[in-house]
C-alpha cells in the first residue's frame, strides 16, 4: 500500500504536473465562483428560474412575477458558459500536455497565461470593460490552448 | 508491451484511483441520462429546437408550431447545465485529489457525498421537491469539491 | 529530474494513452471551432449578446438593435452545448478506460467512432442535414461512451 502511494506521490511530485494541478484548480475555483455570483444576484434582484424557488415570497400571483430573467443574471450566466466552453479544453489538453514532458518554464508560461486570461475575461465580462478587452482575453486563453494541443499532437500522435 | 500494461494496471489498481474511476463514471452516466430525459420529453410534448426535427409531422405551418419551448423540457435542460457546471470541477479537482495521495476513507467520503448530492439534486430538480432541498444538495456537492481543491493546493502548490 | 521525465514519457508512450491523447485533442479542437463559428456569425449577422460588443457601430438607439438573437447563431450555440454535454463524459470516461488496460484495437475502435460521430453531428447540425442523421450521430457517440463506462466499472469498481 505505501509503495503504491509513493508511486502516485512521485507522479504529483513532478513539477510540471504540480503546476498543472495548481493552475487547473485555481481556474476551476474561479469558474465555481460564477455559481455564487449568479445565486447572489438571483436573490438580491429577485429573478429566479423555478417556481419552487420563490415559495418564501408567498403563494399566488404576487410571487409568480419573480420567476423572470434579469439582465445582470444573464450576463453572469453567459460568462459561466464561456468558462465551460474554454476551461474544459484547457483541462483535457493541459493534462495531456503536462504528460508530454514539456520544459517546466514553457509549461508555466502556458498555464499562467491561460489562468490570467480567464480571470481578466471574467472581470471584463462582469464590470463590463469596453471591448476589445473581453475579446482579447478570450483569444489569449484560446491561443495558449491551441499551442498546447499542437505539442500534444506532435508528441503523442497515434491515429 | 505487457510491462507497460502492468504499470498502467497498477495505477488503476490503486484503491483511491479505483474509487475515483467508479464515482466519476457513475456521476457522468447520471449526467448523460439528462440527454435521454430531454429527448423523451421533446418527443412526448412535441417541443423541438430545430425545424428539421419536426419533418415527420409534415411540412408547412401546422408542423412549425412544434418548434417551441416547453416548461418541463427547459427544467431538465437547466438541471443538465447545472450538472456540467458542477461535475466538470469534480472531474478535474477529483482526479488531482486522487493523485495527491489522500487516505482511502477520506477519499471515499468525498466521492460518495458528491455523487449522492448530485443524484439528490437531479431528483429535487425534476420532481420538483420544495426548496431548500435542491439548494442544499447543490451546496453539499460544492463544499466537497472545495474541500478536495484545498487539499490539492496544499499538497501540490507550484505557482 | 530526467528520471521523472522518462517515467512520464513512458506513460504517454503507451499506445492506448497516445491514441486517447490524439482523439481527445482532435475532438476538443473541433469543439473549440464552434466558438470561432459563433463569433464569425455574430459579426456578419450583426447579432450580439452584450451592449459593449456593439460600441463600434456607434452609440444610441440605432446600434442597440444589434443586441439580438439570430437563428443561425442560436443553432451553432445549441451544437456547442451539445458538444459540451457529450465530450465531457468522453474525456472523463475515455481517460479512465485508457487506464483500464484495454486492447489497442478495441480502444482505437471506440475513440475513432466517437470522434467521427461528433464531427458528423456538427456537420449535420450546421448544414443542416435531414433527420435522423443528427440523431444517429449523437446516438453513436453516446453508445460508445456507455461501452467504455461499462468496461471502466467492470475493471475498477470500488464503491
UniProtKB/TrEMBL annotation, chains A, B, C:
The keyword ATP-binding does not apply. One of its GO terms (molecular function) is glutathione transferase activity. The keyword NADP does not apply. It is a multi-pass membrane protein. Its main location: endoplasmic reticulum. GO terms for cellular component: endoplasmic reticulum membrane; mitochondrial outer membrane. It is an enzyme of class 2 (transferase). It holds the Pfam family MAPEG. It catalyses: RX + glutathione = an S-substituted glutathione + a halide anion + H(+). InterPro entries: MAPEG-like_dom_sf, Membr-assoc_MAPEG, MGST1-like. Keywords: Acetylation, Endoplasmic reticulum, Membrane, Mitochondrion, Mitochondrion outer membrane, Transferase, Transmembrane, Transmembrane helix. It is found in: Endoplasmic reticulum membrane; Mitochondrion outer membrane. Its EC number is 2.5.1.18. The chain crosses the membrane at residues 20-41, 84-100. Conjugation of reduced glutathione to a wide number of exogenous and endogenous hydrophobic electrophiles. Belongs to the MAPEG family. Homotrimer; The trimer binds only one molecule of glutathione. This is Microsomal glutathione S-transferase 1.
Amino acid at each position: 500500500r505505501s509503495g503504491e502511494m509513493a508511486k502516485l506521490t512521485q507522479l504529483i511530485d513532478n513539477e510540471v504536473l504540480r503546476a498543472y494541478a495548481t493552475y487547473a484548480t485555481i481556474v476551476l475555483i474561479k469558474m465555481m465562483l460564477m455559481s455564487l455570483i449568479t445565486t447572489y444576484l438571483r436573490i438580491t434582484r429577485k429573478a429566479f428560474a423555478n417556481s419552487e424557488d420563490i415559495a418564501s415570497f408567498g403563494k399566488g400571483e404576487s410571487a409568480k412575477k419573480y420567476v423572470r430573467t434579469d439582465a445582470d443574471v444573464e450576463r453572469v450566466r453567459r460568462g459561466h458558459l464561456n468558462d465551460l466552453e474554454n476551461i474544459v479544453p484547457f483541462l483535457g489538453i493541459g493534462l495531456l500536455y503536462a504528460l508530454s514532458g514539456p520544459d517546466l518554464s514553457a509549461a508555466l508560461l502556458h498555464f499562467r497565461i491561460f489562468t490570467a486570461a480567464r480571470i481578466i475575461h471574467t472581470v471584463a465580462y462582469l464590470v463590463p470593460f469596453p471591448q476589445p478587452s473581453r475579446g482579447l482575453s478570450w483569444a489569449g486563453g484560446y491561443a495558449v490552448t491551441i499551442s498546447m494541443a499542437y505539442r500534444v499532437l506532435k508528441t503523442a500522435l497515434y491515429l
